[in-house]
Amino acid sequence: MAQTFHWQQTNTPLHISLAGGTLTLSFDGKVNLSFDGEGRLVGAFLEQITYRRALDNRILAKWIDAERAGRRQRRFLDEEERHSLLDRCYEMAADVAAGLTTGQLIPPANRPALDLIDEWLARVAGWDWPKLEAERTRFLDVYKPVPILPPDQYLSTVVQATEGCSYNRCTFCTFYQDRPFRIKTLPQLQNHLTAIEQFLGRGLTLRRGIFLADANAVIVAQRTLLPMLDAIAQKFAILPPDLPAEDRRRWQAGHPIHADGIYAFISAPDALHKTSADFADLRDRHLRRVYVGLESGHDPLRHFLAKPGRAADVLRAVETIKAGGVGVGLIAMIGVGGEIYREAHRRDTVALIERMPLDHNDILYLSPFVADAASPYAQDIESAEIEPMGEDAIEEEIGRFRSALKAWTQPRGVRFSTYDIREFIY
Ligand code: SF4
């Protein structure tokens, strides 16, 4: 809960909150700054712009474009902008620390956690631009760049048990072109886990789950994958599945820093190499949800995209995963294939989803398609003279998908969400 302080001279309020693994300073509700347990800036809100800082010190700015019907805009800041923003945020935090020391900042009467706030602000004061920039090198010593996560996993701890994508041929996807697929050995994974723990430090307290990366780590054979999940559970406390409410509360109280489960991407053909009993074994080792890129339920479009497997394989994969007690995040790309595929894509995708055994443990993601100009897809669509769908048309199409699926998702408690790859940051 936020504690409200006041600046002596102006009587303006400053809300300080220590919750969710972050220290948040909220200046009269107009400026918000959040820092992780190590004192690294995580996010900021200034002059109606939201900033998210990645662990490698990139910063994504997001704002609502008033001139374009309230549409969200976003872009990564350049070096000069990042430097200036970070200096500004850290100066504001230093002013708060000084205000507490000099008595210029008056605490509320109910004795807030001043010691904890002072300690946290002291850690914030340990950072400056060169140190924050140096985080990129530290990050790249621990991780290969993390190009994408599902939106509900942005606050997970990424564990790269594998690197790259074992398929890597979908024409629209350039996420893992920079690396060959490889599976880490158990000792390599254990070293990686230790490096992650050291790098994140107290920042681990804001992490919610563990994301087993990269693109399809669950492809790993069970005899190798199970010890990998055990190694992760030995390093990080993970909430056991299916605890009764009272036991769950007791366990959480005993593990103030913990993950709520393990999550991963998986492609449908890879999922079909496992049985529902395999998924049940993975579930017993904390695998809580896997994210399946359906992209489309229309086979000709899947073929055009070189997506592996047929639509019916995705249905069978989801049935197998669910029968093992693991949740599913299903991703459909809206706007892919342009105008020519628009109707058939919606018709077959909606029909396929309506045959899936999804429930309240699952999420349905509608992802506005963003073509990468460097992808084979961009060339294919040009050679085939296919008219791409613009942002407005995609927005409208997302609305149609939602309307078409609403009557089916609502009674099942399936969550709907948007998956905009341009918003991703780790
Ligand atoms: S399977 Fe997924 S990660 Fe691999 S190329 Fe296709 S979309 Fe990209």
Fold and architecture overview:
There is one protein chain. With 426 residues, this protein is α/β, with parallel strands linked by helices. The protein folds into 2 domains: 3-133, no CATH class; 143-423, pyruvate-formate lyase- activating enzyme (Alpha-Beta Horseshoe). It is 39% helix and 22% strand. The protein contains 13 helices and 18 strands. Strands 8-7-6-5-4-3-2-1-9 form a 9-stranded antiparallel beta sheet, covered by helices on one side. It has a 7-stranded parallel beta sheet with strand order 10-13-14-15-16-17-18. Strand 7 (59-65) and strand 8 (71-76) form a beta hairpin. Helix 4 runs parallel beside helix 5, helix 8 packs across helix 10 and helix 11 runs parallel beside helix 13 (391-412). The mean pLDDT is 96. The structure holds iron/sulfur cluster (SF4). Iron/sulfur cluster (SF4) is lined by residues 165, 167-170, 173, 175-176, 215, 267, 293.
Summarize the structure.
This protein is of the alpha/beta class and 426 residues long. Helices cover 39% and strands 22% of the residues.
What is the topology, as strand order, of the major beta sheet? Answer: 8-7-6-5-4-3-2-1-9
Bound molecules: iron/sulfur cluster
Fourth-level CATH superfamily of the largest domain: tm_1862 like domain
**Unreliable residue runs:** none
Mean pLDDT: 96
CATH topology of the largest domain: pyruvate-formate lyase- activating enzyme
Number of strands: 18
Strand proportion, as a percent range, falls in 15-25%
Bin the helical content. 25-40%
Instruction: Give me the number of helical elements.
Output: 13
Give the CATH architecture of the largest domain.
Alpha-Beta Horseshoe
The coarse silhouette is: globular
Q: Output the radius of gyration.
A: 23 Å
